[in-house]
């Protein structure tokens, strides 16, 4: 039906073009002839009047086609994927967010919730989101001073992004509040850090999440990959090299949660005081049991997300030039 409508609309435009061209050719022919009497005006005026009538009819046909229900763009029936991403200011921030945003741009029915670790929204992130072409919500929530990593601290020393992910959950629970009777919008919530690499297939895999879906994560935990172990379609354990006895020894990039499940558990969130490696478990323990996990990516045999990190830039030459007053223009956003 939609294809026939497009074909009809294309035909109407072609006819409109031909009629307009005919009028132009006729007018040019008349300009090339001498006319000292009024008898030539009559056929000219009749032709113009006829062309105007045909043009008016074509415009009416175009309006009818464009306003018909078949021509309206159908609303997507896909469950929305809500991607919560914590981010913080650093030299590679814009590069990381640009790469992630352009991956997300290829995913239909997606809403990006970007939460800055800052006292207020920054111009850099605001401009990037505005130009991204994505449906988004821009939030900010600073990390408590006692939970901040200091220069030289290893990444694993303290959990990162806790306040920002919880702020994203707070927004979802307020903006997508469950209706009476526990009914709520279908959707999926995924926690996507801005320094990972994501296959587009991953978002297809998580779209049908009923409670909590899981899959492998590559290049994480000092291993080639970590993954749930699946037998007969059920998760029975985890392939991990560090503390496999944790309730859910899984990386943040390795699971997605049903929006309905989160809305019906309004107090479940990430515990910033959880022991090292237990941050994911602090959320999942309040939502699901291991038996209820839904393995994806061919029963957790395919790696579709990688825990990559951009190398911290070395700026020795930049620093040397700055010492001479020749450093890069600070007004140029990187």
Named at the architecture level, the CATH assignment of the largest domain is: Alpha-Beta Complex
Largest sheet: 7 strands, mixed
**H/E element sequence:** HHEHEHEHEEHEEEEEHHEHEH
Strand content: 15-25%
CATH class group of the largest domain: Alpha Beta
CATH superfamily membership of the largest domain, which one? Spore Coat Polysaccharide Biosynthesis Protein SpsA, Chain A
Q: Identify the overall geometry.
A: globular
Poorly predicted runs of 5 or more residues: none
**In percent, how helical is the residue content?**
25-40%
> What's the end-to-end separation, in Å?
48 Å
Report the mean per-residue pLDDT as an integer: 85
What structural class do you assign from the helix and strand content? Answer: alpha/beta
Describe the protein:
This protein has two domains: about 1-70; about 80-215 and about 240-290, Alpha-Beta Complex (Spore Coat Polysaccharide Biosynthesis Protein SpsA, Chain A). The radius of gyration is 30 Å and the shape is globular. A seven-stranded mixed β-sheet has the order 3-2-1-4-10-6-11, with helices on both faces. It has a three-stranded antiparallel β-sheet with strand order 7-8-9, with no helix packed on it. A two-stranded antiparallel ribbon has the order 5-12. About 35% of the residues lie in helices and about 15% in strands. The protein has about 325 residues and is of the alpha/beta class. The mean pLDDT is about 85.
């Amino acid at each position: 039906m939609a294809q026939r409508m497009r074909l009809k609309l294309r035909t109407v435009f072609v006819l409109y073009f031909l009629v307009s061209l005919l009028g132009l050719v006729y007018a040019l022919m008349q300009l090339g002839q001498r006319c000292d009497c009024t008898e030539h005006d009559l056929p000219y005026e009749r032709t113009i009047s006829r062309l105007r009538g045909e043009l008016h009819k074509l415009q009416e046909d175009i309006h009818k086609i464009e306003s018909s229900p078949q021509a309206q763009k159908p609303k997507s029936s896909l469950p929305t994927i809500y991607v919560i991403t914590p981010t913080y200011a650093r030299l590679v921030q814009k590069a990381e967010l640009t790469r992630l945003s352009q991956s997300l741009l290829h995913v239909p029915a997606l809403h990006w919730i970007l939460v800055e670790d800052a006292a207020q929204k920054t111009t850099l992130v605001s401009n990037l989101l505005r130009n991204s072409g994505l449906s988004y919500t821009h939030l900010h929530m600073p990390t408590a001073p006692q939970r901040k990593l200091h220069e030289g601290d290893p990444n694993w020393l303290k959990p990162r992004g806790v306040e920002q992910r919880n702020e994203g959950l707070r927004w979802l629970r307020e903006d997508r509040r469950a209706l009476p009777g526990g009914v709520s919008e279908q959707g999926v919530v995924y926690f996507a850090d801005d320094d990972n690499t994501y296959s587009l297939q991953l978002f297809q895999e998580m779209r049908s999440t009923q409670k909590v879906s899981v899959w492998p994560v590559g290049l994480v935990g000092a291993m080639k990959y970590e993954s749930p172990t699946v037998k007969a379609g059920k998760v029975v354990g985890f392939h991990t090299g560090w503390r496999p006895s944790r309730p859910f020894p899984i990386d943040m990039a390795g699971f997605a949660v049903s929006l309905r499940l989160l809305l019906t558990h309004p107090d479940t969130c990430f515990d910033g005081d959880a022991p090292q490696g237990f941050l994911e478990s602090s959320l999942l323990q309040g939502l699901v049991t291991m038996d209820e996990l839904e393995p994806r990516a061919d029963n957790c045999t395919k790696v579709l997300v990688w825990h990559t990190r951009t190398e911290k830039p070395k700026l020795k030459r930049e620093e040397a030039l700055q010492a001479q007053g020749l450093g890069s223009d600070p007004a140029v956003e990187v």
